């Protein structure tokens, strides 16, 4: 299969990008991911507490709402472990690795490319 061909019933990557952008737009003005909010991930696997930055959770949630499931490879801080919530999404410095972009790996896995 060449680069321009798409497997049956699969969307091209640019269509998925559009969906991700559109899904994220509905959260404009939302305070759900603000540092002062208590926010549970959309899949219920992780909870972020007030005074925690939630930018990585926002990315994780928007991808999840678009059908892209990612691992939760990181441990939370002391407060999260105290409440039994130890899983965290990728951090900013982990989104890209020297070998390959983690998000592309996840997309390839979901789309079976």
Could you walk me through the main structural features you see in this protein, from its secondary elements to its overall organization?
Residues 1-6 have low confidence and may be disordered. The chain is globular and about 45 Å long. It is mainly alpha-helical and 113 residues long. It has helices at 13-25, 55-65, 78-82, 102-111, and strands at residues 39-40, 47-48, 74-75, 87-88. The longest helix has 13 residues, at 13-25. The strands form two sheets. A two-stranded antiparallel ribbon has the order 1-2. A two-stranded antiparallel ribbon has the order 3-4. The termini are close together. The chain has one domain. It contains four helices and four strands; from the N terminus they run αββαβαβα.
What is the total number of structural domains? 1
H-E order: HEEHEHEH
As residue ranges, the low-confidence spans are 1-6
N- to C-terminal separation? 10 Å
Q: On the 0-100 scale, what is the average pLDDT?
A: 75
Tell me about the largest β-sheet.
2 strands, antiparallel
What is the β-strand count? 4
Residue share in β-strands: 5-15%
Shape assignment: globular
The percent of residues in helical segments reads 25-40%
Structural class from helices and strands?
Answer: mainly alpha
Structural Rg: 16 Å
Topology:
Layout: H1 13-25, E1 39-40, E2 47-48, H2 55-65, E3 74-75, H3 78-82, E4 87-88, H4 102-111
Antiparallel strand pairs: 1-2, 3-4
Describe this structure in a few short sentences.
This protein is mainly alpha-helical and 113 residues long. The chain has helices at 13-25, 55-65, 78-82, 102-111, and strands at 39-40, 47-48, 74-75, 87-88. The chain has a two-stranded antiparallel sheet with strand order 1-2. Strands 3-4 form a two-stranded antiparallel sheet.
């Amino acid at each position: 299969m060449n680069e321009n061909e798409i497997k049956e019933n699969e969307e091209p990557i640019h269509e998925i990008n559009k969906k991700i952008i559109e899904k994220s737009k509905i959260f404009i003005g939302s305070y759900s991911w603000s540092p002062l909010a208590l926010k549970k991930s959309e899949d219920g696997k992780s909870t972020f507490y007030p005074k925690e930055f939630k930018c990585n959770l926002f990315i994780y949630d928007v991808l999840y709402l678009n059908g892209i499931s990612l691992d939760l490879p990181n441990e939370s801080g002391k407060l999260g472990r105290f409440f039994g919530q130890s899983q965290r999404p990728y951090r900013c410095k982990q989104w890209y690795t020297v070998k390959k972009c983690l998000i592309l790996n996840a997309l390839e896995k979901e789309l079976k490319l």
